[in-house]
Amino acid sequence: MTMLEWVLQLALLLMLGAAIPFALRLERALREIRADRSALEGSAQGLSEAARMAEAAMVRLRASAELAGRQVAERTATAEPLRDDLRYLVERAEALADRLEGLVRAGRPIANETPRPAEPVPLQSQAERDLLRAITLGARAAR
User: Fold this and answer.
1) How many Cβ atoms from other residues are within 10 Å of residue 96's Cβ?
2) Residue 103 contacts by C-beta under 8 Å, 6 or more apart in sequence?
């Protein structure tokens, strides 16, 4: 072997020696990547399972919201006639209260002049009679 061959082989040997630490570092990095890859795959499976569970929960939530909406609509439909009835009763009660107030005002000057028992005012309906009875019982209880 000639000197040139020896020099070339020595240079090749030095380069191979210098490449060994790089190869070891590369092998360790590849091992870590493989470990991270399995962890990533596990995370991806967990993420897909969480997405499926979230979709199922969203479907259940949507069904619950629709059911609640239907129940509210039914109750609202039931309450509207009651509201109308109450509005009618309040209007009648206000009219009766105004009428009763007028009768009381008209009766005060008479009561101040001559004390005598009050004559029952002829009432038109059972509601008016009940209202007058409730007012007189309330006035007696207040004394």
Assistant:
1) 17
2) 121
C-alpha 103/C-alpha 122 separation (Å) is 12
Surface-to-core class of residue 92, CB atoms within 10 Å of its CB (0-12 exposed, 13-18 middle, 19+ buried): middle
Ranges of each domain in the chain: 21-114+123-142
Q: How much is the pTM?
A: 0.40
Start-to-end Cα distance in the chain: 138
How many Cβ atoms are within 10 Å of 81's Cβ, its own excluded? Answer: 9
107 CB-near residues (< 8 Å, 6+ apart): 118
- For residues 121 and 103, what is the distance between their CA atoms, to the nearest angstrom? 9
Per-residue pLDDT reduced to its tens digit, 68-118:
999 999 999 999 999 999 999 999 999 999 989 988 888 777 656 655 555
